[in-house]
Write a structure and sequence with these properties.
By secondary structure, the chain is an alpha+beta fold. Helix content is 17%, strand content 23%. The strands form eight sheets. Strands 1, 2, 5, 12, 13, 17, 18, 20, 23 and 24 form a ten-stranded mixed sheet that branches. An eight-stranded antiparallel sheet has the order 30-31-32-33-27-26-37-36, with no helix packed on it. Strands 25-35-34-28-29 form a five-stranded mixed sheet, with no helix packed on it. A hairpin with a 5-residue loop joins strand 34 and strand 35. The two termini are 43 Å apart.
Amino acid sequence: MRLLLTLLALTVATAARASCPDHAPLKNAYFGDLHNHTSYSLDAYNFGTRTDPAMSYAFARGAAVDVGLGYDATKGEVPGPLGITIDFSGERLDFGAVTDHSEWLATDYGCTVDSGSPFYAASYCRRLRNLRNPPIAQRPCLGFKDLTGSGCRAEQTTAWGAENAATESANDPCTFTTFHAYEWTFALSPQDDPQQDKQTLHKNVLFRNANVPAVPLDALDYPTSPTLWAALAEQCTAANGCEALTIPHNMNQSNGLAFALGGYTAPDLNRMMKFQRLAEIHQHKASSECLTDTADTGAVTACDFEVNPQYALPGDTAGYARPGLESGLTRFATRGYDPLHFGFVGATDNHDGTMGNVGEQSWPGFIGSQDNTPLRRLTRNPFKVNPGGITGIWAEENTRDALWAALVRRETFATSGPKIRVRFYEYIGGDPCADPGFPADVVSRGGVPMGGTMPYVGSAPSLVVYALQDATPLAAVDLVKASIVAGNAVESVHTIPYAAPPYCLTWTDRAFDPAAPALYYARVREQPTWRWSHYDCERMKASNPTDWQTLVPGCASNDPATGGLDVTIQERAWTSPIWYLPGQPVTVPAAALKLRDGSASRKPSKRRFFFESVTKRNAGEHRIAVPAPGSIGDPTSGGASGGGATVTVYNAATGEAFTANLPAEKWKGGKKGSRYSFRDPGGPIQRLSVAADKLVVRGGRSGFGYTLDKPSQGTVSVQVRLGTASPWCADVPAKASGKPPTTTKNDRVDRFLGQPNTAPPVECPIYGSASGAFLDTAQAASDPP
């Protein structure tokens, strides 16, 4: 069945209109940078950056820009380097996003670009333009609110419009894709607090298309993750065509708090699972994968790659990506949902406006005139920084829609700079490495790619890693596994050397436990190459032949443990994980959802409920497959779990829920297990039928306990579970109708009509009490956002 569903899905995808010449149903790898700052970021302007968003996008496509033009000669600063171009395989990116800081966008733009702004002539702005480092308290704006100036809301709108205009102008479908974006720059400590860098919880906010909020939702007006997500949920809706993702970065600098969830309500967690599907695992301020740990057993030290020693203390561990993923597994094992279900991206966080400039040999730094010479780079925290990384996306073509769909499904990987093309699948049968058309055979057999969740197929899972090198040959693959054993997260790292191209290997998890949640990801490492500091050391030796050892003594050593800077590294790629989550709901589309109630007239007997899901046109992971007779999903008395079923109707936002139990004795099976049907004329669910790709439920009357007594529902969710198998889950918004379209007619007291043919939700919503409180009361209320 899994093979058939996958073949049908592939056939549908192949038949889709190919809008780009390189359109490929089996997907291409595209590389880009989703975290980059320009002169529109106030800190970058202070660093001397004068590259604006349009110039930054041009650089990503191969144009030359100048670095560090805003310099103070009285401090010994110098201009340049000038005329640099991207040092990157292929000499350009495939996609990019400018993510300037939203909190100071109005101040920066109104002081340095818009000479007509109400505060352009103010003392603070004059000092800023003259490199005189004006006091923070004199800034004219805080976000879009007036501080010492006026007209900040209008200036923020103008600045955001300028950012968006540059992004739209640079978007070139099939060649170079741009995404509207900004950085939400939240820190638990005040900006002038010396601990601020140890309390960062920053996120980049990315949008699918040009339908974006009127101004960025910044960390000053939305100062917690839940308030940001709530605002995005309100302002980015299906009705206005706005879709968003939030991507945390520098989790290593979060003081271990990046994935703390204390005090989150069910609506908070649902929004988190919708918006936060990716995390930035590597950038110029070090790697956030993991710290060297006991799982490496001393034989594998690959965690210890570009780790900032300042953020490598025991209290920092929980903020790194691997422990965060493990925390999600633990929550799934104990509570049935995983809000830390994220894939990986890489980026630069460059503040020169030079997105994707990740070459070790010619790296010009990342903070303008503060590190634009070899001496400055080698003496300014040389072990805390690196050129950063990039993101790889597997998509059918290079367009916003295709790349966005891949970001949402987490079919992404991060690299520390090189264009290593890496595929990662769970596969069934055959020899993937012998397939000359890889991954055609894996996909046709129902293989699950990176970012996906694999089902149990009756045996231990097998994984395949297929990689194409960039300029440097590959050395090894580290297969990382995390699982829940006796209630605790246990990890293991399995290193397999590469012999020679083609770089393909398979691995089967012989320790697999079908009852234990688990995840797997691959870390592909290159042969050692010189780090950026080696090349700067060589420049220092050439420019200062008599005193380089005095200026940078680390250049005389190749031992990083003693401060040596003449060192090599192993560049790498990290795939997004593949999860195994036994019992996780299967999200399905909703062809129809209709509810009626008698609350207004106090006649509950008027209640009616109808739900239908048809999945024959959906991908395999969203299909309705009939459980085999005698299996745990068989709802008859012959089922392995004793049969029976449940239907739950709920509102994830309010916590209202009703569950109907459907006893085994009222179920019948079809011939050869082709369908199941339920009938109970006097019960809250009168009829339910399940067949291949189709589920129909009818219910109502006074025994049906879900009411429509509130002014509106917004969205209603449905879960149907047969036996103890994974439930099917749909999440349906109210139908909009009329001109202009509104939901008023279809979402009111006593009536809810869902949007027909609603797509499967990205995650099945969870629900709590009517107050929104969930299962986190045991955690400290003081836990951060």
